[in-house]
Amino acid sequence: MKIGILGTGMVGNAIGSKLVHLGHEVKMGSRTTDNAKATEWVKDKGPHATHGTFADAAAHAAIIFNCTSGGVSLEALKLAGEENLKGKILIDVANPLDFSNGMPPSLIPSLSNTTSLGEEIQKAYPKTKVVKTLNTMNCFLMCDSSAVPGEHDIFVCGNDANAKEIVKSMLMEEFGWKSIVDLGDISGARGTEMLLPIWIRLYGINQSPNFNFKIVK
Q: Which of 39, 51, 187, 211 could make a disulfide contact with 28, Cβ separation 3.0–4.6 Å?
């Protein structure tokens, strides 16, 4: 499958590397064609890994991962281009975190409480099938559920039922997830994005990102 990764940080690197390893054709996108991190990423990945602009990655892909920093995600998607996003599944992994006052970061007020980044992306691109998932954990756990032992959950939400089923299949078959909690439509992104403050606090207490959430009934 042709996959587009928007973003060159740890999350984009981890997801892109996993998908290349599984045999997918992955193009990593950034603002420029000569981004140093993207150039470095493709060096040892073989012919299935390429890089280009955000627009190049979006045009290449059948499924797109938004792995940009949440504060600039809408700008990055604008550069990717509405026509390149139309009709495609966009898996939004980003969180709207504000690091301007240092650590720990806070949520960006305009993208939280009464809305979310996931909702604002869907509003801006109504013909794109936005699915929010993978944003409540460390990037290495995203790609391999066994990185944390035992039973734990991953959350999914989005307006398009068929798109969610495709994403769920990818999570299970490619990343090894067994317990998927469907939170309904894209407004469920408010909840998963607002989990980040407690995730960050737990990270500080545990001095490790290797943990996850489990819903016990």
A: 51
